Amino acid sequence: MEANLRFKNLIVGSLFASFSALTGVVQAETLSVAVAANVQYAFEDLKTAFKQETGNDLVGTFNSSGKFVAQISNGAPFDVFLSADMEFPEKLYKDGFATATPKVYAYGALVLWTTKNIDLTQWQLALTSNQVAHIAVANPKAAPYGRETMKVLSALKLDQGLQPKLVFGESISQTNQYIHSGVVDVGFTAKSVVLSPEMQGQGKWVDVPKSTYQPIAQGAVILNYGKEHHAKTAQQFYDFLYSAKARAIFERFGYLLP
Length: 258
Known about the structure:
GO terms for molecular function: metal ion binding; molybdate ion binding. Keywords: Metal-binding, Molybdenum, Signal. This is Molybdate ABC transporter substrate-binding protein. Pfam families: SBP_bac_11. The chain is of the alpha/beta class and 258 residues long. A five-stranded mixed sheet has the order 2-1-3-10-4. A five-stranded mixed sheet has the order 7-6-8-5-9. The protein folds into two domains: 30-107 and 216-252, D-Maltodextrin-Binding Protein, domain 2; 110-212, D-Maltodextrin-Binding Protein, domain 2. The protein has helices at residues 2-23, 40-54, 65-73, 87-94, 123-128, 144-155, 159-162, 172-181, 191-194, 224-229, 231-240, 244-252; strands at residues 30-36, 57-63, 80-82, 103-108, 110-114, 135-138, 166-169, 186-190, 204-207, 216-222. The longest helix is centred in the N-terminal third of the chain and has 22 residues, at 2-23.
């Protein structure tokens, strides 16, 4: 009797294994994604859509792109990198940490945002007035949005006069905290932030004229760690970033599409 039971269990196990092999059943994987801080809110929607489509999970870590380059170069186990520019992922590829050259997944836009009672209609005059004492900008050495902000101020010949008012955040995330909490009077951030459900309707914002800067090309790469440990799923997510579903999400958050 006991032998028959063992035999039946063996048959059932073998049939299940054969069925799994035939139907391609695989265990869901979880990818670790290094995400530029400006993509933080859009990433939650990307994560949900990717899970629905593939069954695989994403875990995002958010920081400035420059800091991610340092971490990845020192062995941080990220599968995919969503940068806020093309230069940082290009550097990782040239240094041998990514599997291919970066490809643009979206173009980011700059806005000026305040949660205080400041009229932004003539925002350049407002920045130079006594009404504005502190202006938040992401660190231009590590955050591409900060770098583009400084180009805007230079193009408008405001950089020298506003220098004493500038307060630098380590990333767009910290810059947003400064603005949202009222630690500063105004700040430059990504349009994706003010359009996010979490921030929508909070304070006032205006678009920074695109004539003063180039829309920010943001690139993605599969990293060596991803290729070595989760090659199929990393490629799935990379391809998903350029799909119609992902493009619709990026567009909803104010990004321009490649």
